[in-house]
Design a protein that fits this description.
Length: about 80
Amino acid sequence: RDPYRLFVVSNLASLFALVSYPWLIEPWFGTATQARVWSALYAIYVALAIAVAVTGGRRARRQGVHAQRHAEPMPALIPA
């Protein structure tokens, strides 16, 4: 229930990642391999973000058209 617990968990995970990098990642993978992996992961992220944006836009347009079809007609404006 306490939202600050999530901040603590996030900070601990970040700290663990920073401390473990020199012992777990760096000795096993060279900088060129790390760069290729990060570039590939970023390209996947961009592709997924574009896919979500396109499908979300289509869904919003479809729901907007659906809402317009079933909306009640607006009453005529009465001149003041």
